[in-house]
Amino acid sequence: MSLLEVKHLKVHFPVKRGLLNRARLHVKAVDDVSFVIEPGETLGLVGESGCGKTTLGRALVKLVEPTAGNILFDGKDIANSHGKKLLATRRGLQMIFQDPVGSLNPRMTVEQIIGEALDIHRLAANRDDCRARVRELLKAVGLNEAYAQRYPHEFSGGQRQRIGIARALAVEPKLIVCDEPVSALDVSVQAQVVNLLQDLQQQRGLAYLFIAHDLAVVKHISQRVMVMYLGKIVELGATNAVVDQPKHPYTQALISAVPVVDPDSKRQRIVLVGDVPSPMNPPSGCPFHTRCPIAVARCKTEIPPLREIIPGHLAACHLAK
Ligand code: SF4
Question: Which residue lies with its CA nearest to atom 8 of ligand 1?
Answer without folding.
Answer: 295
